[in-house]
Amino acid sequence: MSLMDRAEQIAVQHMVASQLRNRGIEDAAVLRAMSRVSRRAFVPDASLADAYSDQPLPTAAGQTISQPYMVAAMTELLCVELGQRILEIGSGSGYQAAILASMGAMVVSVESNPALTERAREAVARAGFGDAVDVVQADGTLGWPSRAPYDRIIVTAGAPRVPRALQNQLAVGGRMVVPVGDRKRQRLYLVGKEQSRCTPTPGMGCRFVPLVGVDGWSVAEGD
Ligand code: SAH
Question: Which end of the chain is more exposed for a tag (fewer CB within 10 A), N or C?
Fold first, then answer.
């Protein structure tokens, strides 16, 4: 794991206390992961001063790194356990994948944008999680079948519905967290799977960039 200097440690502790604990994030493993992984390793140089601010940040290609609170809330909903196999759709910067890896999970993270895939892979390696995270380029609405089933699936782009392939690739007893709604606003769904049936439960409102793909939004559909 990349080492933080004193100033960064203070910024991280402040973020964890004011943005996470204060808003009800309680899971000790999530709070520990959020305090240990350097967000600076994942944000573009132009946003370094804002690495721990209470907002999403831009990545290349008009995409975003989620706000720290959203990363923590989704991770808490996922209930990550040591050694689990996790599929992430939408690597973006690679920060969310690194948080999951720091909790002892093995992560396959799928990104559709080739330039972002390359950067996320580099950032994850630089942060010391290269062995636990595979960043691959593909249309994540189709999942990543060769390593299925997954104990956990996390989608970090807004979907029009829960992609069928992801339901199929979720292990029985598994959990999936996925924002579903229109292109601008969504609700965070927690999807459980018992036998072969997936059951979605709606949660808080959220705003993610659109999940664009075969079982997602099409590029041409209006903005
Ligand atoms: N989890 C990221 C933030 C993701 S932003 C982080 O921690 O930084 C959403 C990402 O989803 C964008 O990078 C976008 O390119 C990607 N995306 C959109 N549609 C996709 C698809 N069908 N498959 C894989 N990635 C997709």
Answer: C
What spatial distance separates the first Cα and last Cα of the chain, rounded to whole Å? 38
Q: Tens digits of per-residue pLDDT, 54-100?
A: 999 998 777 899 999 999 999 999 999 999 999 999 999 999 999 99
Ranges of each domain in the chain: 6-221
pTM assigned to the model:
0.97
- Report residue 7 as tokens: 């100033």
CATH superfamily, domain at 6-221: Vaccinia Virus protein VP39 (3.40.50.150)
Q: Is 157 in the pocket of ligand 1 (CB under 6 A)?
A: yes
Q: Which of 2, 18, 53, 66 is catalytic?
A: 66
Q: How remote is the CA of residue 6 from the centroid of ligand 1, in Å?
A: 31
Residue 217: DSSP 8-state: B
| Structure-token match 């240990």, residue found | 36
- Whether ligand 1 lies within 6 angstroms of the CB of 141 is answered as yes
Q: Are strands 57-58 and 64-65 parallel, antiparallel or unpaired?
A: antiparallel
Helices (H), 79-206: 95-102, 114-126, 164-169
